[in-house]
Structures are given as C-alpha cells and as structure tokens.
Amino acid sequence: MVELIKRTSLRVKLAATVFLLLLIVTVIVLFQSNELSPAKALELAGIEEPSATLSPLYEGEAWKPEPETDGFAEALENDDFALYIHPASTQIALVDKRSGYRWSSNPAEEQLNGETVKGVLLANLKSPFVLTYVRTQGKDQTIREVLNAGDPKVQTTLIRNENGLQVSYLFTEKQLGFTIQYELTPQGLKARIPSEGIKEEGEYSVFTVDLLPYFGAATTEEEGYIFVPDGPGGLIRFDSERAGVSRGYIHQVYGLELTNSGNWSRSGERRENIAYPVFGMKRGSNAFMAVLTKGGDSANIAAMPPGLKSGLYNVYTNQIYREEYLYRMSRLAAPLKAVQKQRLQTDREIEYRFLNGEDADYVGMATAYRDYLTETGKLKEKLKPVEHTPLYLKIMGGSYTEAFSKIKYMTATTFAQAARIVNGLREEGVANMKVVYYGWQNQGEYDLYDRFPIEESLGGEAAAKDFLAEMKGKGVDVLFEDDFVWIDSENSDLSGKTNGIRGIDETVFIDEGWFISKPARTVAMAYQTMEKLKKIGVSGMLFNYLGEMVFHDYDPSGIATREDTIAVYDGLLAYAQKTLGSAGVYRGNDYTVGQTDYIAGLPSESSYDFMVDETVPFYPIALHGYVSYSFGDGNLRNDVEAEFLKAIEYGAIPSFFLTHEDSRTLKYTSASFLFSSKYEKWTSRILKEYADFDSLAPVFSQTIIDHEKLSESRFATVYEDGTRVVVDYGTNTFTVEKGAGA
Amino acid sequence: MKRFLLFLLLAATCMLAAPEAIYAELPYRTSYYDSNQAAWLRIQPVYAPAETKGPRFSEPVDLQVGADDKVYVADKGANKIAVLSPEGELLLSIGAEEGESMLSAPEGLFVTPEGLIYVADSGNQRIAVFGADGKFVRDYKKPASTFLEQEHFVPVKLVVDRRGVMYISLNSSYQGLLRMNGEGEFMGYFGANKAQQTVLNWLKKLILNKEQLAKELASLPRPISNVALDSDGFIFTATAAGFGQGAIRKLNAGGVDAFKNKTLVNGHGIVDVASDSNGFLYNVDMDSGRVNIYDQNAEALFAFGFIDNETQQYGVLGYPTSIGVDSKFGVWISDSRTGTIHKFVRTEFGSDVMQALTLYLAGKYEQSEPYWDRVYARNDMYNGVFQGLGKVYLHDNNHEAALSFLKTAFDTKGYSKAFWEIRLDYLQKHLIGLAAAIAAVLLLLKYGVKAIRKQFKRRPLPESWQRPLADIRNLWFVMLHPYQGFYKLKEAKVSAWIIAFILAAVIAVKVGTIYLTGFLFHPVELSQINIWGSLGLFVVPWLTWIIANYLVCSVKDGEGKFREVIQGSTYALAPYLFFSIPALILSNLVTLDERVIVDSLNTVMFLWMGVMLIVMTQVIHNFDFLETLKNIAITVFTIGTIWLFAFLVFGLSYNLYDFFYQLYKEVTFYG
Questions:
Q1: Which stretches are transmembrane (chain A) (predicted)?
Q2: Which of A726, B287, B379, B635: CA 20 to 30 A from B503?
Q3: Based on the structure, what is the number of domains in chain B?
Q4: Does B349 touch chain A (CB under 8 A)?
Q5: Is residue B443 part of a domain?
Q6: Residues of chain B found within 8 Å of residue A643, distances taken between Cβ atoms
Q7: With bands split at pLDDT 50, 70 and 90, how would you rate the model's confidence at B570?
Q8: Are A443 and A400 in contact (CB under 8 A)?
Q9: In chain A, whose CA is at the least distance from the CA of B383?
Q10: Residue B240, SS3?
Q11: A579, A593 in Cβ contact below 8 A?
C-alpha cells in the first residue's frame, strides 16, 4: 500500500485528495439537509425563542399612609373597587363598591378569637403571605421554616404610584426579601410577586411563597363553597363533613414536575391533573374567581378545610420557587434529598375577579374565566355553526410488538379498510365526520425519530394518498395522530444527551428507556413530518402530549421553564393550524385552547377526592362554542350510559376509537387499552349515539350560559339562545327544549 | 404513544412509574389474572368507588355486613360499635354508655343472621353480646379451663356458628381459634396454621441435641389475622406472610382446610377475607396494595383498588383493616388511616363478567352465554371470555368455534375435548380415504426405498460421497449398538463439516419442536417465545458437558481426545434426532387422554440419550463402568461449578460496569 502511494504521481495524489474532500463535503451536506436543526425549525415555523420579560419594581418615595380608626388606609381606587391596607400588618382589604362587600386578606380579630391554633400557625393567619425558606449552608439543607409579616425582624416599605401599590418585605436577620404588587383592574384585583423583587443575600433561600393564603377565608357556618380546578371543576362545600383529610387539596397546575423522581414515590396516586389554573370562592351572594395569569405553571393551587392549618376554609396559591428532589449518587446507593440550587426566575401574578348576586356561582366564575380568556386573546374566534354535529372517528392503524424475536407490526386497519369504515358510517347516516388516524408511522411508534415511509402493511404512501383523496372528496377531514415528545432511546438514533430534557440533577431524564425531546427538537420533528404529510393531503394533526404535559428543562446552560415549553408548544400548534388546517390535542390544558380545533379527552370526571363534594362543568362552560371537545371514546367507557349522558350534559361531541380487525390483534402491543374496538361490534351503537348527539347540532357554536342541578340525578344546561338540555341519570334519558332564539 | 405503552405495565409493579396524565379514569387500575401466563393484565373497571357520606370514625378495625345489608363497624379508637344503613348513614351506636355495656377498644365483631352482635371487647378481655336494638344481652369472660391458665384472654376477631359456638382469634395466638360454646365453656382450639418447616429447622433437628434445641427459637405457626364465616357454615381464616401459602383457608367443622394450604396469588399481605352469596372470595392485600377477587376455589380473578398511606381519594385505601360484601355485591372496606369506610360497587361490565363467571363455574354454560356475549362485546382481550364462550360452544357441539376460542384462552383441557370430537368426526368421514393413504405410504416406503436403493446401485454416487454418507448412516448404528458404535467412532475421524451438519440438524429439530409441537403439549403464545433463550438453554448445557467431560476425564487418565469427545457427544444426540420427529407429529394428532404416548416417547428418548452419554464416556476414555459413573458424577459437578463461576463473573463485572457507567455519567453530565 505504502509502495503504491509512493509510486503514484503528484497529480494523481492531488486529484485524489480533492475528490476525497468533495466526497466528505457532499456527505456532510447531505446529512445536514436531511437533519433540520431545532433552531432552524423554530425559525421556519415562525416561533420566537422564548424569552421571559420580567415586570419592573416600582421606584420612588416610600408612601406613609395615615390609617383610619380601623387601622386601614385607602391605597387604590377605581370605579368599582377600592383597596385598603393596614400599614402595620400589611393586611389588605378590597371593597366591592357595587355591592359594598368587603373582602379581607385575613380573618378579622373577632374571628381569630375562636381559633384554637397558636404560635406560627396563628401568626400565619394574620399575614398576607407565608414564605417558606431553606438553608443553603450547614448539614440538612432540606429543613423548611416559615416567615410571615408578623416577624419582628421584618422591614416593610410601601410605594404607591398610578399603577398600584407595592409592599416590599425585608427580613434583615435572614437577608431574605420579596415584594408584592397590588393593582386594581376593572373587574377586580391583581396581586403579583415580581421575580426582580426577591432578595437572597444570606445563607437562606426561598422555597415557596403562599400568596394571600387567607383571602376571603370562610367559616363552616357560612353558605357557599370553594371552587377548585379538579377535572372539569370541583366544589368544596362549607357545610359538609368528610373523611380523614390530612393534606387538603394541594396540587400543582398541569401536574407534578415529571423529571423529579421525588414526585414518583406516591405514583399509585392517579388523578386528574389541573388543566386550567383557576380557583374561586363563593360566600353567600358574593364570589371571586382567580386566574393565575403569570407563572401559574409553577404553582400549587391549595384549598384547606378547617382543622388542618386553621378553623377556616381557605383557597390560595402556593408559588414554587425551588423543588426538593432525590439526588442519586450511584445506581446502587440510596438517593439523598436535596433542594434545587437555582431559583425559578419567573413573575407570579394572580388576577381576582369579583362577582355578586346572580353571578356569584360556578357558572358566573366560568363565564368570568371565559371573559378573561377572550379579553387576553387566549380564546380567539367562536366556532362556526354546523348543520350536523361532527363525530370524531379515531382509527387505529396498528402497533408494533416483539414477536418471533423481532419487531412485528400488527395491522389493525389498513387505509382501504379505514375508507370502508368511513363510507359505511356515512351511508348509515353519520353526516359530519372527522377521522383521526393512528399508528401510521413506519413500524408504528417504534422509532418516533424515524417515522417515514408510511407503514407498508397499511398500504404505504400510495394507499394513504388514495384514502386522503377519497376523504377530501367527501368533505371528511383526516388528522394524523403523532407524538413528537417521547422518544425511545433504545430504538432511536436521536441522541438523548443533546435532545433530551434534563432533570433537576442536570442529567438527561430517562424513564424506562424513554426520554423527552426538548421542545425545539419537537418542533423540528413536527415541522419535517408536517411538510411530508401536507404533500399527501393530510388536513390536520392530533398532537400527543402537547396539551397535557409541560416541564422544566434544567439544562446546565440555564433552566428553560414550563413557561418556555408552553410558548414553543403554542407556536407549534399555531403553525400546524396555519399549514395543515387544523390541530388537535389531548386533555386541552388552558394554554392550548386558542391554537387548537379539537380537544380529545377533555377532563370530565373528578379525581374522587375526599375533599371535593361536587363535580361541575366549569371548564366546558368556559370553552363551549369556542373549541370542540370530546370526552372518553364511546367504545372504551367504563359506564356506557352514564358517560354518554355526561357528554350530552357537558356539551361534548362524540368520538369512537375503532379498528377493522379484532382488538385482540393488538393485545401484546402498546394499544392493548383498546379492549373492544372492532367496527362491526360498534356500528349500531355509533349510529344511535350519533342521532342523539346530532340533536344538539344547533348549539354546537353557542356558549353555555347556565348549568344547574335540578335533583340528585337531573341536570340542566342552558345555551345562549335559550336551548335547555335536561339530562336524567336516573332514567338514562335527556331532553332538548328549543330556545326562543333558535 | 408512551402513554399507551405504560398500560402494559402490570398494576402491581407500578409503584415507581413516572406520574402520567390520565383521562376520565378511576384512581386505580383494574387487572385480571391470567393463570396461563401467571400475570396480571389490564381490564376495564369491575368495581368503581362509591362516595359514602358516612360518619367519621376514629379507628375502624373490623367490619361486617349483616344479613339485612346493614354494615357493622367496630371503632377501636372511639370504643364503639357503629351500625350503618346500606347507604352508609349512621343508624345506631353501641357501647358508649357507662355500665356493663361499655366497650373498651373493641377489635372485632360478628353479627348473627338473627341480628345478635358479638363484640370482641379486647380492652375488657371479654366477648360482649348485644341485641339487634343495641341492648346489652350478656358477656363471656375467659372460660375456666386448666388449659388456659397461661393464656391472656384478649379476643380480637370472632365468628359464631349456627349453634352459637364462638370461634375466637386471640391476640397474636399461634394456637388457632379458641372455641367456646354458648354457655361460655372452653371447647378446645380449632384450625391452627401449620408450623413452618424449613430446611434450616430440619438441619437443626438433625444436628442439635435436646438441650440445644430447647434454646432455639421455636418455629411457631403463623397467627390467624382474621376470620369470616360463609352462608354454608365454612370458616375462612386469613393469615398473612408466607408468600400467600395458606393465606385463605376454608375450614369445615372438623377443621380441615378445603383449599389444602393452597398458595394464594396476592395473599402475602392479606388483611381480611369475605365471601359473597355466590361463594366468590374477596381479600384486601397490603403487600400488592390491592383488593382481590377469587373464585370458589381461591383462584385469582380480578384485582382493583390501591393502598396508599397518604390517600386523599375515594377508592384508594390508607390502611385497610377489614372487608365485607353486601347482598348486592357491594364491597365495604374499613380504613383506619383515614377513619372512613370505603364502598365499591360493581360496574355494568363487572356485573356481567361476575354473573357469567358464577354461572360458568356452576356448570350452567347455556345460561352463562348471554352474559359472556355482553362481556365479549366490551372486551375481546380478556382470556376468561374465550374460556367461557369456548365451554359454551363445546357444550353446544359447536366444536370448530370451541377449538378456536379455547386455544385463545390456552385452555388445554377444553381444547383437547373439542379436538377429540373434531378428530372423531374427521375419522368417521374420511376413514376409507385415510386407510388408503396409510396403505399408500406404507407401500411407498417399502417399494420406494427399494427402488431408490436399486437406483443407487445402478448409478453409484461418486466416491467422495461415500464416506460422509456412511458417517451419517452411522448415527443409526451408534444409537442401536452404542458400545460397538462408539468404539468404531473412536478410531474413525469424522470430518468437521459432518459434525456441523449433524449439529445443525439437531438445532433444526429443536426449533421444530419449539414452533411445531401440538398446542396441547406446548400451550404458549408462539410469537412471544424467546427463541435465542430456548436454544441457549439447549446448547449451553451440551457445550459445558463437552468441556467438563474433557477436562475431568483427561485429569482422571481418560484416553479420549477433545475431538473425540465432541464427536462422541454429537453422535450421542442421535436419539433426539430420531425420536423428536415422530413425537412432534404425534403431538399434533393426540388428545390429552392419549398424551402418555408422546410423553413416554420423550422419556425414552431422554433416557436413551443419557445411556448414550454414559457409554460414550466409557468407550472413548476407556474406563471401566464404575469409573465411568464416578467421572460422570464429577463432570456434572464441574458443570455446576462452571456455571457458578460464570454467574459470579457476570455479577462482579456488572458492579464494575456500574462503576464505570457512573463515572462516565459524572464526567459527561457534570464535568
């Protein structure tokens, strides 16, 4: 070999070198053009790199109010509301001038006389906040201690300007400080904790802050309830006795932080994660609805019954700044507890809207929330009226399994069979249908980084094209379902190290071999997939996980917060709507509702909490007429009739999840939850239910204006034009009374 | 699609799974037990939690549903007995008044069909009896008996039979249930658990003398943790620990266990047992954290619910203490952690499937059909439905359908019956044809072989073929004349490719037996077989045998060379080649009644191979017979040693690997 090189002439050597270089360059170019970089994808999809803008602190002279005889001084005022502050204790009170009702941040002295709690708990009751902190030095850095406004070593500074009132607290001994800003809005009050105002200059750091924990706290004697965002909406009545509640209702918005293994220890707990950051309280003929307008994704919504921390019912937010996590030194050693070093640097803001009279109930709260969503542009246009209710037909193409010691794709419905199912239903009278096709990727969801070509055993791209063209001809939209979030590291070439999100310990988060793609990589994969799917005629995508799962990415270069994840996901949904025509998500967390046309599996059931006494359709009331949504698929219900009636009551549209083959084909695949999905078994039920759902077609684009419980088993839902739907769970029937406006 | 994948996880193993989003689902999962795979698989809910607006309790420790569906609860913390309506409202509270009716830490109760309430008044060391109206009737103190002088009478659970005889479980007593008649007289102990016999105990008994034995901790029977009585008068005892062995015992009046100390699935942490009017059993198990349903023979059917110490949800139990079933099959569970009573009610699907199972197990196949059909409409993955409908079809003489359904359910017994019918039918229809076919095959064998031989004689194969063919033909000879055969083989040098060819044929036959053996003899899901694992289990022992045999025998002055050992061991596999194929064919033709044919064929084959190996060792190494046996024993020991060594090396190198892996992780993710 050496001889050979020596013998060749210089010209040949040069030519060979040039040729080799060219080859390398083409290879690199080829690979690069194949691989879309996340940054480029964000740019192409028109999504801005998320960057948080933080609210500034108020500057200026300290305000020295002169309190009136009750100790409170008026701080802010607008047409309907006035805000008072007690300068010594910094308690606040808000007067609703429309009704004259006074909401206080803390219970009055008379109420406190009846309290049995002492010490710190009593001091907390008198404070507009409770700050929990941990040490950053010393042996155990996970011990939590609390500070409140009653602390003797606290310095408070008030600043008032045209925007609002700012109260700054500085705990001189601990060298900790933070600030609350209050602003009046036409509907009520905003309270904010600006990130800029948090000072951690000593050996202590902020763990969580309870903001206005006892605002509006009520006694058991009062008439009313707390509203919590459990499932579609949950009420905690002041007058009910319940089983041993040891923790109260305290849950993080959008669910616990996934990458924190400390959160897994009780994962036997299966519950409906909070999908919308709202809480509320009704006291007699007055009520408030509070939305977590900023930083809600890093907050717990907490409702406490009497007997846990005080003798009162209270509801508030617990703002999370750091998490405790389990730090694993080695795979064999027991993990240690530690507290996250870096603070989450996001503003936290809550907007309270006050309601009275007729509006002071959960329907009023839901309406106020809808108003908030439309005012802020989070809900956009109303739906267009339809002649017939749309039916979402989910079709499972198939899924993979390990069979005969290799990966085998189990075909459940080919494209041709799917066309036959759709045509069959159309002929039988299902006039408006939308199809969601699952498992179309090469080998199903085996490797979700490498999903093309379209699975051959379903008919491949050619059959897909035919199917889509036929459906387009019949006016049936076809969405493809896909997951751009979880990647199986064992089956995929995509590197988890550069593309997977990091847990609090800054290592890549891997759960049973699967990692979660960074949001920008999700966009890159989705962008390329949509490019190809658009060409063959797909009219939308149903995105798995975008609507139901958010997370922090603790990248060593800086934490990308849940807020950043949400910004990217929203951008992707908007892009999908723009490019393909429609986008759908599961569950429908509040951030998606403006960019989505269809929500599958909107929360419809409670979590069976001891605390929650009644389940109400708060979220459906807020969304109906703006976004279409379905609950559990008709053939996979636990209770066929009751869940059907619930869908009618809550204004959902029908959905079924079908296959052409026996579901048994999928027994050993990830689709083993399709207990019974064979088309032939369900045809008659689909037709019966469709006729029922179709009788509600006129209200498809209307908002719900009222909902009431007529008796234990009868409920009425009223729409804009006065149409009244009464559902009776006792007789398994429902009636539609046409409204005057129809 | 990760969400969907997670559904595959078995319920019992979900303690450490990432929190995930769920839809409109209960706070727990429901699974059914697939006894063929010995695994819990997912199914839709059979029971759903019902929210009971019942009163709060301080520490409810025992619960019973009376004949009138009233629920009786012993509240140890509040020193009371509470009587609840079927809806869970408080009707009556017993035992709080001063005087002789006052209870102290009652831990158990029993309600007779007539409504008499017997209370194990543990704190007062007595049994107190109350009328249905809550009036104190009488009490029973510790019975006077010389046997009981050493005993503390602290009753914790009890049942009372029709004659008024009490069976009382005393606090951590290993002697079983104390039996006391209606007059308060001691009638002996009843139904003690068996003492645990361990190998260690057996060794101790063998080695230690009497004095030493006396110093050892006695191995006592496990105490009975709970008792229940069914409508037929059988007494059920619940006993925790022991990995479910004897977790539920069904005792007749003579104290004989109808379940024969059976090992109960999900029974290691059993808390309590109850039976419904159809004889199905319900248990709460702390170990698996589930509520389990069993059939009349204590075979596991379904599991639902969940146990979590910090529960805040209906349907998730904090610390379950007792279970009861009402006449509408509602399951009631007392929970001392949350001080509440949980109630579960059957779902529509649950009612259908339980009704179908009830009729099916009673042999009423025809009546069970409509229920099975409804279950089948809602779930075509549940094995039970295939078994149920399969039996129904078998009963209806619809054998083709029965065959397919029973195969899906892996029910070999039923399959065998259906197959027998189909085979009979086939034989009757095609008897003449079959006879003709067999005759034809026989003739073909007779004359065909002759013809082929003739052909070869006329046109002999090339010279180079003769030797290999002879080597292969030699397989047959060696099998029938092992001594002579191996002796000849020792001198002959069989070429490597012939050996490889024979081994390949053996592997091919092995693969054939894995995939082509009749369903009755190999009832497994073929697609789920780990072929490499199965082949490994076949090949590795053979390889280690060769190595160990060569090593041992060369140390022990055996003459055999390594090549000879390989050669001999390969030829010793001859019976496998010749027996497996007929066994394979027969396994597809016979039913379970005739399985003895296939089984004996297999047994003969393995014995023959064993003999071949012994003879091979003797001939190749030129040992005498006793020497051979000794060396084979040493060889077997060596094989064990090699495996142990391999296992140790693997274990240690895994630790080393882990060390480097952690180092790598540190460097890449922190550095």
A1: 12-31
A2: B635
A3: 2
A4: yes
A5: no
A6: 24
A7: very high
A8: yes
A9: A664
A10: coil
A11: no
